[in-house]
TrEMBL record:
Pfam families: DJ-1_PfpI (PF01965). This is DJ-1/PfpI family protein. The keyword Nucleotidyltransferase does not apply. Keywords: Signal.
Length: 226
């Protein structure tokens, strides 16, 4: 291309952008919106394992929601929330981690009501460990195939008999609901979600990038209960 033609083309492109400032914004893909619930005494790896994997996808926006601005994990480190629980936030994926904090929260009727509303505006719901206890107690998992932390299996399953609990599963995907077993299983399930959404090549890319050994077989559950 001659210099004059190059300059002319550049001027036309600039003029178009000035006339229509939304041109590029409109054609850009909307980020995948991920919202994760945090509460005092949540299990650190429940949240940060999946977030590590999901956050390596392109065009993703991850936000934390909680009932106060600073939340303390069970292991001690704190996180700052992005969104208040004063309302619900539409999202593509809603993450519910577990941890010892769930033992008290299952009796929190205000939280149960908020969960039901939040789930209604969430494309997919992903629980890790005893995060499924919160969903189950809220009646959200009634009739759904689901699993949970096998070390807390009796407690969680005793909260809601209407759930189709799976005693042997690293994770269970049942339409809108993706539930995983204890702690590290959430990281495996997160990569499954990446595979489901963006394909196996992308999931394997993230697996290599993070030097993580992915258990990609949901039936391979070394901690299954009888």
């Amino acid at each position: 291309m001659k210099r004059r033609d190059f300059l002319t083309a550049g001027s036309l492109a600039m003029a178009t952008a000035m006339v229509s400032p939304q041109l590029f914004a409109v054609t850009k893909d909307k980020p995948l919106q991920i919202l994760a619930l945090v509460f005092d005494d949540y299990e650190t790896l429940d949240l940060h394992g999946p977030v590590e994997m999901l956050g390596h996808m392109k065009n993703v926006q991850i936000k934390l929601v909680g009932d106060k601005s600073i939340i303390r994990s069970y292991q001690g480190p704190k996180v700052v929330t992005d969104v208040s629980m004063s309302s619900v936030t539409p999202c593509d994926l809603f993450i519910v981690p577990g941890g010892l904090g769930t033992r008290k929260l299952v009796e929190d009727e205000e939280l149960m009501a908020w969960l039901r509303k939040q789930v209604s505006v969430s494309g997919k719901v992903f629980s890790i460990c005893t995060g499924s206890a919160l969903l189950a107690k809220a009646g959200i998992l009634d009739g759904v195939n689901a699993t949970t932390n096998k070390m807390a299996y009796q407690w969680v399953t005793g909260l809601a008999g209407q759930v189709n609990w799976q005693p042997s599963a690293r994770w269970v995907d049942d339409g809108k609901y993706l539930t995983s077993s204890g702690v590290s299983a959430g990281t495996d399930a997160a990569l499954f979600y990446v595979c489901q959404l963006r394909g196996k090549v992308e999931a394997r890319r993230i697996e290599r990038l993070t030097e993580y050994h992915w258990n990609d077989d949901a039936k391979n559950d070394p901690y299954a209960v009888s």
